[in-house]
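Q: My labmate handed me this sequence with no annotations at all. I'd like to see what the chain might look like in three dimensions before we decide whether it's worth expressing. Could you predict it?
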Amino acid sequence: MNADDPVVSLEGIGPALADKLAGLGVERVADLLWHRPLRYEDRTRVASLASLRPGLHALIVARIEHAEIRHGRRRSLLVSLTDGSGRLRLRFFHFGDRQVRALQAGGWVRAFGEARAGPQGLEMVHPEYRVVADRGAGERVAPTLTPVYPATQGLTQARLRHLVGQVLAMLERPGFLPDPLPAEIRDDRGLPDLHEALRTIHAPPPEADPAALAAGTHPAVRRLAFEELVAHQASLRARRRALQALQAPPLRPDGGLLRRFHAGLGFEPTAAQRRVIGEILADLAHGRPMLRLVQGDVGSGKTVVAAAAAVTAAEAGWQTAFMAPTELLAEQHYASLSAWLAPLGVPVWLVTGRRGDAEAAAAMAGGEPGVAVGTHALFQEGAGFGRLGLTVIDEQHRFGVHQRLALRDKGTGDAGMPHQLIMTATPIPRTLAMSAYADLDTSVIDELPPGRTPVTTVAVPDSRRGEVVDRIAAACAAGRQAYWVCTLIEESESLAARAAEATAEELAQALPAAQVGLAHGRMKADAKERAMRAFKEGRIDLLVATTVIEVGVDVPNASLMVIENAERLGLAQLHQLRGRVGRGDVESHCVLLYQPPLGEIARRRLAVLRETADGFEIAREDLKLRGPGEVLGRRQSGAVAFRVADLLRDADLAPAAQAAADRLLTAHPEVVDTLAARWLGADRRYADA
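A: Here is what I predict for the chain of 689 residues:
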């Protein structure tokens, strides 16, 4: 039997049990070894009853003094025990006559459970137990700590332990589950070999630290986490090498058009923008595809950087496809790019699900140098490019892997594949980016343009809603504009959230002197566009909206934002929303309106927003609170979930994993396929990405 054989190859597994195991991610024989215990029970020693404390799980052996059925609010079987050092009761609410007959005074019981404080001393409620012949028979103990696994209905711990035990025994067979990491790589980190780590995880010796094993900080778990990180790094970097071995059109114009672009902006790019533009231009000049991620906080000027790249492509005679996740954001990019590029003679076309014209389609298909801005409509069958040299993807985490590939493939041809520029306004901590984006070069715009006004943020309970409305009235009377963000469209009593429509009506009545508008995702696109445009043009004073305004709205006159039910949103989304104000030269405010009482995580989120406007600091806190999967938008991005590694807990392993991946690709390339098959699955999900 091989480690990669289906799990039904094991003794005692039929189709029904295989289905249950598949629900736990166990499909191959080796998958049982990656199925980590949640916690461990110490059955390696018998505890005296005198040593028990509430909350302690323990193995005890004691003599039955008395057993009786109590009839109170709830019928129960009480079994009083002693071992000479103290006393304990076993309590059973579900029992039968056979059980009562077995638990008679004078007999001996071996039991494992949690000691709890009861009405008359310590108790164990429904412990695991068996009747034994005498004390000596009960004192035989387990040789190792006992693992408790994630399970599912119909799959007992005993069955899981038996199955894992079968596979652990197979580790003695020559060639079964070879260790893919060379000894020199393991030794650099002081990590055990694979088989030693697996035995420690599933059958820890009595002296092992069960808390460290469960938490993932034990060297045995770190060994598996490191291997998994290396697998992801090596696969991503192998993909990068494969892509960079392909051709791309070298974009090396003389820069005259780019100089005119800079001169016509009307403002001076920041030093960070100039640095990132230089990194991009260096990539574009090569005959291999650029693969670059640009991170920049809200308002840092990523669009200007992308525009500079598009101008360079146009001057070299190539087209750019600029893809945004929503029509609203695509339209804003279209407006900005048109204002900057039209004076240079570079056409900008808008391609969305609702909009496109035959003339633009003909120009794109004919290869005219220019920029096509749009949504997912850009990679659909009707959109064609004659000379696509650059793709720009904004808010990349909102697109799936295959959507990005479909856009890239619009440009493959004799000249090679287009350069790729990926942008995100959600800063990602460095160690997290190293693991998640090992296939990309990364640029960071770590400076905001001058003139951005800091936003003062306050958290206010919903009971002070009237004061907040008065504040909006004052802002509108002073000629300023405001947002009111609702987190739900429909009423939901359980979440105490107000409908956007009801809120708009309520605020219109409370603010008769203000023009109140409404925008949410269920409105018809034309109606939503009219509302957004009216707000941008100053014809609406207060825009009541859902989180559709998270990206894509730039109204410098808006100086106040109220986020209702702010406790329900994540840090990154709150930061994005707050970035809609403070874009002018007037003092701006963000009010986080919450429903008390606040949970601990919600309280911390709101505190972080009040304390800092630094997107990278917010990202670090977001990572702590939500975990890597949510921060990266894994569900949207299609990235593979980690089975053992935790990108927050194991962040210190990321640099070493990257170095090890590079060593393997150079000196042991055959190992990379083994790692990919083991940790990424048979589909090799990075292979075509």
